[in-house]
Structures are given as C-alpha cells and as structure tokens.
Design brief:
The protein is an alpha/beta fold. It is 37% helix and 19% strand. The protein is built from 10 helices and 9 strands. Strands 1, 2, 3, 4, 5, 6, 7, 8 and 9 form a 9-stranded mixed β-sheet that branches. The longest helix has 23 residues.
Amino acid sequence: MAERIKITVVTPSFNSAHTIRETLESVARQDYPEVEHIVMDGGSTDGTLDIVRGFPKIRLVSEKDEGHYHAMNKGIELATGNWIGILNADDCYCEGILGKVAQAAQNHPDWDALFGDFIFVDDSGKEIYRREEACWDRQIVRYGFGVALHQALFVRKATYQRLGLLRHKDFKNACDMEFLYRMAREKCEVGHIKEYVVRYRFHQHGQSADKRVVANMARETDRIRAEYGVPTGWVGKALGNYARIKRQIEKLVLLGKCDLLPGRLLLRRHMREQTEFSSNIGVDKL
C-alpha cells in the first residue's frame, strides 16, 4: 500500500511580527489538504503571538528556547506528518508547492528527503534572482556547496529519527549545513524537484542579510568540513573549485544552462553590516 503523505511544516519564530503573517498565509493558501503547521515560538513580545493566533488551524507553542535550530528540533519532535519542511518566519512557500512535494514523495518511496529551488526576494518581496539546482550530489555537498538548504528541503520524519536532529548546541548558524553533510555521509537518497519551493527573503529584520551571521556561518562550516574529513589548505581549495565546476556542468547537462554570475554577487548589495533581529542565544550580538 502506498504511503499516505502528510506534511508537517515547522516555523521557528521569535519577534517576527514584521514578516510572519505573509509566511503563515503562504501555508494557509496551499491546496494540499494533508498539512500540519506548527509554529515554535521563542517567547515573542512584539505582537507575533497575536498574529499567529489569528490562524486557528496552526498549532502554536511559545516558550523560551536555545535558538531557532532548537525551535526546529522541538517542532520536528512534535510533528505528526511523515514528511517535514522547515519554513522560516520571514520566508513564504510558492503557490501549490506542497501538493507537488507530496506527489513527488508518493512517486519516490525510496527517497529519504527531497528539495527544490529558491526565489530570493528583498524587503518588499521584489525578486532578486532565482537559484536552480540540477540534482543532489554528495561530492558537491562534501567539498563545497549546500545545494539543499532547509528553506526548500523536506525530510522524512523517519530520516530524522535515523540520523538524529539538528545539532543546535554545536552550531548557531550552520546546523542545516551539517545535516546535509550527515545525509551525504550516510548515503541518503535525496531527490530534486524542478519547482520553485520558497521565496527566501533577504531583509533588514532577518539573519541571512547580516554580515556578522554570514561570517560566523563560514567559520562554523570550516569546523564542519574538518569534522567530516575535508582537507584544508590548497587541497581543500582545489576540491572546492572542483565542486563548483561540477555543479555548473551538471546544470548544463540536466538543465541546459548554468549560472553566469555567482549568487553571492547578486545578493551582495542586499547585505548589511548589521540587521535587526532577536535571538535567545545572542546570535544578534555576534
């Protein structure tokens, strides 16, 4: 008998009143019926909770946590769906995407996880650029590039139960990267769907556009690579270049196109020295 696909969406939040309504609406508008939405709030004081309570179908838990990855872990543990997606409180799902995710999961019972593509947007929701991937490639993940970050990633609950949750006590900004390394090491079957999954917002009230956070993510990623045995020095740089070139070749072969400009260049003018966001563990004071 085919597996019944129920998707749990976990949204970590903390003082997210500027953006969370759009996030919640993007889930509420989905046309797939088997969806559970859990908001794991870190104890907001800015009106976030009033907004969430306006969506009666959402399961809301508000209590102090150890950061947004800890909130994700608590949501994963509460999830009753057999597939789980993480949607940040400043990002939005694209129209109709959860039905497409469910269909792909139904069609590929061997997949441990699946991911799709991104549309990066600015404070006002205006498109910056679109990032498309060709496929899951363990070498590319291991040597240099996170092809399936959590905003567009869906993972079986059974996969989390087998591999473990996000290591929120070890990493403040790169837990999702470490989980990709873990899936690659364990040779998980990770599928790719050629669909835009999420509108990923770079804005004044989020972490992604904060240069301090990006710098810390790079430091933590170096620690992760060392833990997983990726060489450093010129050998590590050569392997990183190999991964970038391989990614573009796969895009040419499978998509018929490649990136003319690196995404980091397209996002550069949207970066800030410091953005405005709250954190229970001091990420906002890096």
